[in-house]
UniProtKB/TrEMBL annotation:
It comes from the Bacteria. This is DUF4350 domain-containing protein. Residues 39-235 form the DUF4350 domain. It holds the Pfam family DUF4350. InterPro entries: DUF4350. It comes from Sulfuriroseicoccus oceanibius.
């Protein structure tokens, strides 16, 4: 039996033993990894859809409390979005405009994962001390709402609250509670112990202010638990007007402020820039006539070049270059090797070219000084060129 057959037989025997020892049963465990897509980026997607199906209308998402072109009856704002007094003043103005303002103190951030190990992962992103260090505490103090960090809530121990004659069971993790000290509580604990609660609501100016210690009951994963969805709709019934908005961020950027305060100026500047570019573009500019190019004869160009060389006192360089060329041609033709500035005899050169140029003219060209007049210079250059061509 070959080696390959032995290996195949061993593999078949091993597989038979493995299959024989398998009973065919097992245990499957399912682990929830979390939402994907829009539900992962927007923790209140389920709440917005529940409210829309219940007839409360669609829920708009706003980038800032400063950017709202229409009047909303209810606006949800995270505490982490209230960073300065300008935002607090804006919230106060919204209350004057009959808006039901719902402040989510903790657990409303988008980066939190509803499927993290343990429900406590949604608590603690904002502590009571953190909120006291922000400008939001000014608004809470104004309407008599206190933060009590001496109490904690656990999702494993739901709390029952009474609102409008109905009882709601709410379960959430929170490291602190809220208490309304200067108004009759609209939401009361069924146990009636008077401790701080997960949620309080009261009239504020012309609107209503609701403060939620932790937004966990209204997040997508936990909205279906307990009576969270019914509590959300009961809060909507406390609003004087329809229209719901969730503010993604509370502040306003520099460019947003410029657009808010000077949108007309920005639009006018943009139109002026577009008009200027339109007038300056080549394809929109007036058609220009083709420039008239003066053509120059080649002879005139050579003559002009000669005048330039002569004006720069370049006659010596012209003569030297031609003498060196003549010396090289003479060495090639006769085999007589001379070193510049030594030149062959003018008579010998004249005899070599069969008298085409006389010996006197060759002598005059070879002995002409660089500073001579133009006419002798031109005659010497012409004779030297003729000699070079004939050698």
């Amino acid at each position: 039996m070959s080696v390959w057959r032995r290996c195949l037989a061993g593999f078949v025997v091993l597989a038979a033993f493995l299959f024989a020892g398998c009973r065919g049963d097992g245990q499957w465990e399912e682990e929830q990894l979390g939402y994907t897509g829009k539900a992962r980026r927007y923790p209140f997607l389920a709440a917005s859809r529940v409210l829309e199906e219940a007839g409360y209308g669609p829920t708009d998402r706003l980038r800032s409390v400063f950017v709202n072109d229409k009047h909303y009856g209810t606006m949800f704002v995270r505490a982490s979005s209230v960073a300065d007094k300008a935002t607090v003043n804006r919230l106060r103005r919204l209350l004057r405009d009959d808006v039901h303002l719902v402040l989510l103190l903790d657990g409303g951030e988008r980066y939190l994962n509803d499927f993290s190990k343990g429900h406590r992962a949604l608590a603690g992103s904002w502590q009571a001390e953190d909120i006291r260090d922000t400008a939001l505490i000014e608004l809470l103090d104004e309407f008599g709402i206190e933060l009590d960090d001496g109490i904690q809530f656990s999702a494993e121990a739901p709390v029952r609250y009474s609102l409008g004659g109905e009882t709601f069971e709410v379960a959430a993790d929170a490291d602190f509670g809220v208490r309304c000290v200067r108004a009759e509580p609209v939401i009361e604990s069924v146990e009636g112990d008077g401790d701080a609660a997960l949620i309080v609501t009261r009239r504020a100016l012309a609107g209503r202010l609701t403060v939620v210690a932790n937004a966990m009951p209204f997040r997508s994963r936990f909205l279906a638990e307990g009576d969270h969805a019914h509590l959300l709709m009961a809060l909507m019934d406390l609003s004087d007007y329809g229209g719901i908005a969730v503010v993604e961020d509370g502040g306003i950027s520099f460019f947003g402020m410029v657009w808010r305060r000077g949108s007309l100026l920005v639009v006018a500047g943009g139109l002026a820039l577009v008009l200027w570019l339109w007038r300056r573009m080549t394809r929109r500019a007036p058609v220009l006539a083709a420039p008239e190019v003066a053509l120059t004869d080649f002879g005139e160009r050579i003559e002009g070049l000669g005048h330039f060389v002569w004006s720069q006192k370049g006659g010596a360089q012209l003569l030297e270059g031609m003498k060196r060329e003549l010396l090289a041609r003479w060495g090639t033709a006769t085999g007589q090797m001379l070193v510049f500035p030594e030149m062959p005899d003018s008579g010998s050169i004249s005899e070599r070219i069969r008298g085409e140029v006389s010996a006197d003219d060759i002598r005059a060209a070879l002995t002409l000084e660089a500073g001579a007049e133009s006419e002798p210079m031109l005659l010497a250059i012409s004779n030297l060129q003729k000699v070079i061509r004939l050698l």
